[in-house]
Input
Amino acid sequence: MRVTGVIRCVLPLIMLLGTWFIVETYFDQRWKVISLRSWLGVTNKPRSQQLPRHKCGNEKSCPQNYFAFKIISGAANVVGPSICFDDIILMSSVKNNIGRGLNIALVNGTTGQLLKADTFDMYSGDINQLDTFLGEVKDGTVVLAASYDDVATKMNDKVRAHFMELGSSHVKELGFRDNWVFLGVKGLKNKSPFEQHIKNDKETNKYDGWPELLEMEGCAPRKMD
Ligand SMILES: *[C@@H]1O[C@H](CO)[C@@H](O)[C@H](O)[C@H]1NC(C)=O
Output
């Protein structure tokens, strides 16, 4: 009898607390005054408060005198590439300044400011335009490049030489519909550590006719005089 009596008292209390908890969970804002959830230590912090956001949405923050960057290649011939530098999207589908082929942004390596952004059709465009564009790049300029669809059909030795001068190791091997992301600097004596290349290969392609997209993020040192 006594056990039943205790259950008779406790059960409604448990149900009341349960209902309170559920109501608070779904009708969150109005029950601030006497909040069971906060009393129990259950909090709904927005995601942004839990994880600090880094420049360009990168996983890590960059030390002082480094620029955060993120370069994403196109996906097949469907999703366009994007280039972020120092937390600013320089090129993307939304900005409507990308195109099939090579997408290139030039940034002042001292100030981090955008100098130029252009796109070069490497399948049927005039390769001399890219040759001229790269020929005019001044020392200390950061060059960010992202592939979209095809980067190799019109590629020639003069353009390859320009990219090698910027620190590229893979430009020599670029083939039809390969993906490529690259960050180089004019006047850099060494090879750039910021380069990724994936071959178009029927056996390993993610998409029908194209490899998986490439995504590269990191911190590029500011040019100090
Ligand atoms: C970059 O900006 C600095 C400071 O304004 C300037 O002196 C330099 O000439 C610029 N370099 C390039 C490559 O534009």
